[in-house]
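Subject: design request, 117 residues
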């Protein structure tokens, strides 16, 4: 559910205090654990370190991000590819195909130079 429109967007006061009176280019990374904080226009240009549960991921706030939450730009889950033995075999075949294509391309370019004798 979204927040009630009469309450307005949730912007963490501590985050606003950290950026108050500072210039975006001179300020370093601002660490925050407030993933639910809505990005306001005053935050544009600042570099935030948003906590994802393990580390702080750097997020450079742009104009397109206004209205979204800080947590949206700091994923909490890391994708590990699917597949096992069969997936590895398919990747190996694809690699071999790329190598064969590169070798045949080299052979085609080398023939005209040798044919000029």
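Subject: RE: design request

Done. Sequence follows.
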């Amino acid at each position: 559910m979204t927040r009630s429109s009469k309450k307005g967007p949730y912007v963490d006061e501590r985050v606003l205090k950290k950026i108050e009176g500072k210039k975006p280019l001179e300020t370093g990374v601002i660490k925050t654990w407030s993933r639910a904080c809505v990005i306001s226009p005053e935050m544009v240009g600042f570099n935030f370190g948003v906590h994802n549960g393990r580390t702080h991921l750097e997020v450079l706030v742009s104009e397109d991000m206004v209205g979204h939450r800080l947590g949206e730009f700091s994923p909490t889950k890391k994708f590990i590819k699917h597949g096992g033995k069969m997936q590895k075999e398919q990747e190996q075949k694809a690699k071999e195909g790329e190598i064969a294509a590169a070798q045949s391309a080299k052979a085609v370019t080398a023939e005209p130079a040798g044919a000029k004798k």
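The chain has a mean pLDDT of 87.
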